[in-house]
Batch of 4 targets.
Target 1
Amino acid sequence: MLWIVTTLVAAAAQTARNAMQNSLTAELGTLGATQVRFIYGLPFSLVFLAVASGVTGAGVPDPNCAFLMFTAAGALAQIIATALLLAAMRERSFSVATAFTKTEAVQVAIFGLIVLGDELSLARVIAILIATAGVFLIAVKRGENWTAGSMRPALYGVAAGGLYAIAAVGFRGGILSLDGGDFYMRATTTLVWSLALQSATLGLWMLVYRRAALFKSFALWRQSLFAGFMGAFASQFWFLGFSLTSAANVRTLGLIEVLFAQIVSRRVFSQVASVRELAGMALVVIGVAVLLAAT
């Protein structure tokens, strides 16, 4: 049951990271804020790996072809998903933009079943559907005029959710592909490789096409460093969860992040939830409760 603890820690840390990245978007733009979590997060992941190896005396697992393929697919999907999430946040409230991405729970269950053969019981399917219904209740407002322009943040969010689902399945596949090593060493090794791939890919792209935003993130190193640390810290616990149970279980429980996002929206961004959004959050809680009971 350790995956429950790791997932709750990851969801709380990710909310803090998203809030910091959201504030950096105004200064650095969408891609500039996106690359911060990778470039500034990589050194912290190396520290996590060194500490885990030093404390336990365990060796670092050697990569193989399957590991590199799964991890690279997850890394690329996560880059695009993060950029789409931040783009959605620019057009809708922080909590609502977060809610749109949580269609990921359904998508990760499907991808996990197809790609990794992760089993889904009826109770877990019901939990995913209840929690996802709560997400839609939060995100879709009654009487809202869904023009092409107003649909854009919804499409960004749903697309981000799909890509986050691919990333989750890719990272779990990478962790399972490593030969030998305890779960925490395989999880942390996968984190280091994923952040290294993401830093190299997006960093090089920014250097060529968005050099000003990249250099400005170095000028805003204090804010960027905190966002990078929280990103690496959240990912460390997500990956620990992926090493212990299916990605669908982790991401469904991770829907509790919607409640954390609402707290941030109210206290930091002064955004007040409507009765409809509160009802949706209640459904998310019920769905999570059903998942835990099934587990």
Target 2
Amino acid sequence: MKITIKQLEVLRAVALAGSINNARKSLGMAQPTISQQIAKMEEILGTQLFHRGQINGVKLTPAGEFWFRYAEDVLAKIDLAIAQHKSTFSSDKIELHFGATPSLSGQFVEEAAKISLQIQQFSSFEFVWARTSSEIVEMINSHRINCGVVSAASVENFKSSLSIMELFDDEIIWVVPSSIPNSVISEALLDKTYMPPPYDALNRYVDVGPGIPWQPRLEDWYRFHLPHASPYFSCMTYQSAVDIAAGGLGCCHCPLSLLPSLPVQIRNRVKFFRMNELARKAAFVMPRHLLSLPAFVEFRSRVSNFIASAYPPNAVIEMIGPTMTVADLMERTDQPAS
């Protein structure tokens, strides 16, 4: 018997996902089938690929590490051969599958779609979003999509297989209903007291849930600055969190990169306060082997140029107008209402 491409795909997916259970989604296979594929490969090779007792929190054996590297190399070459065949011999052009998190939507997706249309080698453009950067990276590694914009921290462990181009520094922004005067916000931050109606929105904040890299830091921020605030609301995206704040129901945090995609009617109903903290570095990522295809290199370059002009903090702040910092609020106790 021989090692199959499917077995190499299963080995790679399980190693990258960290467990058989986590690999089910990217492989589109049931857990027993994945286990059978691994067992068959181990039988053929006459050696263990994963340490026993750790299959649900996998750790590769030395042989598993060898075959993991081999699988990455073989599967990358197959992907490249298919893409080069399409661009050289086939009437079918290359399909572009691009991913990002919801904070990079709206204006950004529109521009990415325009760019793809201008590059004649592409036959179609698919935009896929996921709640976290880690999910986007998993989709790239499992060949569900071929490129995306993610947090640079999410690709630290994949520098050998992915091409990574840093794009911009993203900030954390505090979002408060515009109906609350700045003087009241200052009082809440300085005195750390429970705020009565009609300003009780400062007693509630929106929790965007686990999987967000800076979520623990935000929880600590509320404990220190607004100890009476509780995570009454929860949702899956920062867009939804800002919608709740715009309704005057609570406050929230969001990445600065979300702001250009917010509807004007939403931006007009909230205030944004800069925190002077770096939230993440955004990066464009794709498999290294795609660097040999001019269409992908050109798409990456054009996306990078657009983001460089549209998403740096100063450009975003200029678009939404003057924005105070949290430090400004805590220094001014006699601000006029606004």
Target 3
Amino acid sequence: MEPNPAARAVRVLSILLMAFICPATVRAAEPRPVRVQTVEMTPSEVSLTYSGTVQARVLAELGFRVAGKVIERPVNIGDFVKAGQVIAKLDPTDLSLTHQADEQAVAAARAAAVNTRAEFERYGKMGQKSAAFLPSEFDKRQAAMLSAEAKLAQAERQLALASDQLSYTTLRADADGLITALPAQVGQVMTAGQTVASIAYAAETEVLVDVPENRLGEVRSATDISVTLWSSPGEMLRGRLREIGALADPASRTFAVRITLLDRPHNLALGMTAAVRFVHPAGAPVALVPATAIADQGGRPAVWVLDPRRQRAALRPVQVAAYRADGTVAIASGLATGDEVVTAGKLQLDPDMPVTAWTGPTR
């Protein structure tokens, strides 16, 4: 007898439902793997983080001490120069002629000085008992000798000045540094003191940050200062407080704080952006967990804590001490050393769901 079509449809539907429901039920009974982190209580820190820019402590503008026409400029912007390296040269023709003229003036003054001294010494050998000896002539020859020697000394000083001016036609770096600007071009006529090149000295590099006036006390009392370049977020550099500005900026009402870098990475460049962190201990221990571990429980922060023996996770309220710039959260209370906090996979959790700690590789 042919079965009722309605009953047959119900039977087929029941078989399909069992085929879909039973595997899901089996899978639901399997523990869900979640990423966990074991809690360790550490001394808490109070920290402030400000962004700043990398600068050279000394930025010098170099120029010639004499006027002239630029005939050579072997450096370019961005070049790193050593102390004594040539930056630019002037046409030395006019100063060379002056130097040669002064050399000849020295030679003439030296000859006159030698001659007057010889005449004075010959006249003095005659002696006062000689009938040809005249005291007035003796004094005259002595004065001529002293005058000639003074003129020789004057000519030598003038030659030394001409030598210095001739050497000033070559501009050299007086310290290791980076060329940041070159306003002078080959063929340009420069006046004495006009800026030829700007050089950032490499001896000391610092980070400039702007700090509000109500935070200056915490900056001064910081026991540890660290600097992180935005180009290298995983590398932390040591810093030292060098200077706090005496006057506030009239627009922002912040004070310029300069932090000397004690470490110099290979990729450091002027103008880079850096995060400066000022830390001083507060005393009370805290637990550091990733920000991904924080959940919400009635509008308050909480975390899922795994119980390995029951293979269950419970939502536990916590008190947050601080949200840190490195992506972690400082928990002041609610956790203890040894607790296993769920850091990934918490969105699908409920108190009755079997869970286990994930032991696979980290992606």
Target 4
Amino acid sequence: MHIPKLYEHFTEKFPEIIRNFQELGKICRQSGPLPPKYQDLINLGIAVGASSRGAVMSQTRKALVAGATQEEITHAVLLSLTTTGFPNMMAAMSWVNEVFDRQAT
């Protein structure tokens, strides 16, 4: 899986923070009944709402690994249209498509 250089550098500089952050994420995921694919699709929607390119791309990769299809991921982004607006949805769609394109090569 693709790991951004900034994340790698942060991990090297602040290993304890990353360990605790990852542990918190694990606890949050285990705190409810949703399967990983749905968790990743929900997190993708949150990333779209936050207009975070890095988070959208990361959650897209995670959703694919968890078994989500490109169609399911695209649908999740489309659902953001009425909540976050057309420009934000289109930006997120372009970021998702970057991940799809990289995966195809």
